[in-house]
From TrEMBL:
GO terms for biological process: amino acid transport. It holds the Pfam family Peripla_BP_6. PANTHER family: BLR7848 PROTEIN, LEUCINE-SPECIFIC-BINDING PROTEIN. Transmembrane segments: none annotated. Belongs to the leucine-binding protein family. It comes from Deferribacter autotrophicus. Gene3D superfamilies: 3.40.50.2300. Residues 20-362 form the Leucine-binding protein domain. InterPro entries: BCAA_transport, Leu-bd, Leu_Ile_Val-bd, Peripla_BP_I. Keywords: Amino-acid transport, Signal, Transport. CDD domains: PBP1_ABC_RPA1789-like. This is ABC transporter substrate-binding protein.
Amino acid sequence: MKRLILIAFFVIFSVSLYAEIKIGALFSTSGPASFLGLPEKQTLDMVVEEINKNGGINGEKIKIIFYDTKGIDGEARKKFIRLATKDRVLAVIGPTRSGSTLAIKDLAKKYKLPVISCASSNRIINPLYKEVFKVAPSDIHAVEKIYEYLLSKGMKKVAIITAQSGFGYSGRDALLKKAKEMNIHIVADEKFKDTDKDMKSQLSKIASLKPDAVICWGVGPAPAIVAKNFKELNINAQLIMSHGVASKKFIALAGNAAENIILPAGRLIVADQLPDTDPFKKMLLKYKHDYETKFNSEVSTFGGHAYDAMHILKIALENTGKNKNKIAKAIESIKGYKGTYGEFNFSEKDHNGLTKDAFVMVKIENGDWKLIHK
């Protein structure tokens, strides 16, 4: 009897000792979107290390099972199925790209596996799936912020040039939809592929129409090529980029052509320029310090997506334990969480929880970000 009791004790002790919460992560840490995915993975590793050091979640340590999607939609699907069926994770953070997230959306529903995407496209949450959330603010909010800025400067004549990708399609939809609502006149609607090496043809057509502003919507190297071509053609208009380029990598790729470009971005990249009364400043500066100290590289808003996703999932798991079927409902109940992009208020009908106030307008000056004050 004593032997059985001793064995039972060691079994219970061992289960407790090795109890863990398995969370999947899908980021593009190689390929053209690696400058987005790498800070996401680094941030997630940093946040999980801190959570585990402080006792984990309800006394259990987090184990991250990570796969690199390489920015390929098919790879994202393959790795998601593996996370769901072999690794049996409780939830997935990522993917990095909108296209990859849209590629796994049906799988999240099929396997009833909660996903907190780090991508931006509004199509991720529209139509709404119970299991699918996102922490990056929606394109529609970025567009509202851009149009408000242009209207404040008396600019109504706008040309758009958008990527033929999940992020680009969603951005184009938002640009066209909001233009009608906000009295913006779209004079040109050009497109490009992420792999294109020259956009002078599209930009020359745009230049002939003499717009007040040109809005480029894309991620990766392509928007930097647009910026270079724009400068080479000496187009007399304000060049606006999307939040998809809010990384120093874009400035490095575009070089001098990045100067004076304006874009909507999260507060994180201009945290030190925020007024001391800003409710997010203290948290943002701490994250920025911790990240830059640990990885010896500049913080980016994309890493902030992983920061927010992990903290939101932590809140949900603290309230549900390891019951996968209750996680989505728990996320929907989260209100007032102050993250790197703003205050999140989720609901059954809103799986993003942000508004246009997630963005500030930023200008690139002398190779750095400058907050545009209202």
